[in-house]
């Protein structure tokens, strides 16, 4: 996943049948 232009990293993780999305501000 390339770095976004907005200084954010978006993480996608599958846990069972759920899609977990975490957005972290990296500056």
Structure description:
- Helix content is 0%, strand content 59%.
- By secondary structure, the protein is mostly beta strands.
- It has a two-stranded antiparallel sheet.
- The radius of gyration is 11 Å and the shape is rod-shaped.
In brief, what are we looking at here?
The chain has 27 residues and is mainly β. 0% of the residues lie in helices and 59% in strands.
Essential attributes:
27 residues; single chain; mainly beta; 0% helix
Segments where pLDDT lies below 50 for 5+ residues? none
Mean pLDDT across every amino acid position:
66
* Structure classification: mainly beta
Radius of gyration, in Å, reads: 11 Å
| H and E string | EE
Helix content: under 10%
Seen as an oligomer or otherwise, the chain set is: single chain
Instruction: Characterize the biggest β-sheet.
Output: 2 strands, antiparallel
Strand content: over 45%
| Strand line-up of the largest beta sheet | 1-2
Shape: rod-shaped
Number of helices: 0
Query: N- to C-terminal separation?
Result: 17 Å
Tally of DSSP β-strands = 2
């Amino acid at each position: 996943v390339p770095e976004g232009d907005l200084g954010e990293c978006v993480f996608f993780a599958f846990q069972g049948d759920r899609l977990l999305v975490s957005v972290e501000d990296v500056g």
